[in-house]
Design goal:
Thrombin, subunit H, 2 domains, 6-stranded antiparallel barrel, 31% strand
Amino acid sequence: MRRSAAVLSQDGPTLRGLKTVLEQLGINQVICQSGQEAMELVMAGRCSTLIVDFDLPNAGEVVKMAALLLPPQKPALLAVASRAWPGTGQAFQSGADCILYKPLDAEQVKDAFETSHKLRAKNRRKAPRHTMKTVVYFELETGTLPALGIDISEHGFAVQATEPVPMLSNLAFRCVLPGTEHELHGHADVIWASDQGRAGLFFSRLAPSARKLLKQWLGKRGINRKDAARVLAVAPDASPCLVSSE
């Protein structure tokens, strides 16, 4: 079965260039019209790579969401940028493994694929990931929606529900932190949600006491503040790559 890559771009030359290289690598190019569509594809395991054009509005947020909230078998994250795009440092902070500058060079794109997948394989072996197996309750206008917590960091968490989680902001939630009798409650924004009931959320409102409780809980499990933002994604010692057309 051929692998597939979810590509979020509207740039014709970029799409044509990527398609040529992907075909040589035996990978199908799946063009996505939105970040939501791209996230659903990779969450469902239908794409092994996520490629985002940073010239699109909110592209950085899409990569950041993927880096924070996808499961450990998540795809490699590649970013395509023009020379005018502001700084690679910001791109790497968002979670991108590699930056490819336009116009794309076929050999360097191939090198980026090889490097990024090696990084992901290394991270899956060495990066400690803390899971959160507990029931999370969301308070909707229609009632309470229970879901199983999957992963959590200082900034957000991922869940699996029996039905799609609605795309809402400031969604009230509550759950008991595993191994304790302490209840964590607050509000979170649903950043992405699949038709299969999986969803990723960023905390939008946590009381100081709740945030302190979460930090202490994470700290006891070996997750320090530096690693918290990337605990669901990249190992702290992973080195991103930079690929230029020059």
